[in-house]
Amino acid sequence: MQDSLIQNRLKDFFKNQKESDAKIFNQLALYIYAIEAKNSDLHILAKLLDEQSLTKLVNYYDGDSIKLPSKDEYWDAIITAFSYYCKCIKGMSWSEIKEALHLPEKDKEMISSIKFGYAVNKISREITRELKEILKQVEGKTLNEILTNIKNGLNKNNE
CA 29, CA 36: separation in Å to the nearest integer? Predict the structure, then answer.
């Protein structure tokens, strides 16, 4: 693949250069991203990500749009994941979950057991539904076939 060839050639070139040369190149790349990216936030992403992560991101999306959540949506997802983990995996109560976050008393209402309880139940239902679908395909199969189906299902969801 030409992209990885170019990437490897650049790495080889900058291995033999002074560290300042690599920094100058990266600054130049940021400047070019800013000029070229009239309808893109690539230059902002380049400031936030290391070169390898940025390259992976560009190669993965290859011109497609990325929709990012709002800050509130993102933190709700983080708190939901934490709540699910604590509630369903660790078996903690809501008061234990709130204590585990070490929030000041005035901020403990941020973790609404009703709001996040609903979200945790929704995730549990979705996981149960997906497991039932996998198990329907399992009947009469060998362990290797079952593991392959699970792996394929996980890979399909990550695409």
Answer: 10
Which pLDDT score, from 0 to 100, does residue 6 have? Answer: 64
Name the domain count of the chain. 2
Among left, alpha and beta (phi > 0; psi -120 to 50; other), residue 91 is: left
| Amino acid code (one letter) for 98 | K
Provide the angle, in degrees to the nearest 10, between the axes of the packed helices 71-84 and 113-138.
70
The pair of three-digit structure tokens given for residue 3, joined into one six-digit string: 């992209």
In a domain, 26, yes or no: yes
Model pLDDT for residues 73-89, shown as the tens digit of each residue? 888 888 888 888 888 88
Whether 48 and 77 map to the same domain: the answer is no
117 lies in a domain?
Answer: yes
